[in-house]
Amino acid sequence: MFRHKSGPCPALVWRAEEKRHVCGLATEPARHLPRLPGFLAPIFARLARRWIAAGSGCDSDVTAITAGPAAIAERDTPLTH
After folding, report:
1. pLDDT confidence of 3, banded at 50, 70, 90?
2. H or E stretch at 50
3. 12 burial type by CB count under 10 A (0-12 exposed, 13-18 middle, 19+ buried)
4. pLDDT tens-digit profile of 28-81?
5. How far apart are CA 17 and CA 51, in angstroms?
6. Chain-centre distance of CA 70, in angstroms?
7. Which of 56, 47, 36, 4 is nearest to 12 (CA)?
8. CA 41/CA 24 separation, integer angstroms
9. Model confidence, pTM
């Protein structure tokens, strides 16, 4: 969508209250696409969720391991953008 080659997506948004990243195109499309007419934002958000298959599984190749309190604290620190 943004035609960048590396690094995190510009629409990747950290939600501290949920302790997770979300796709800004699926949650706040007008914020990331200022030329998008307001009435199209809900439709675009729905399409974005479908395009990224939100809620249908994880494509991460990370292997979970049991960790102590220090590792958990590090995990809960947001990534820098």
Report:
1. confident
2. helix 41-51
3. middle
4. 999 999 999 999 999 999 999 888 876 666 555 666 666 667 666 666 666 665
5. 25
6. 25
7. 4
8. 12
9. 0.60
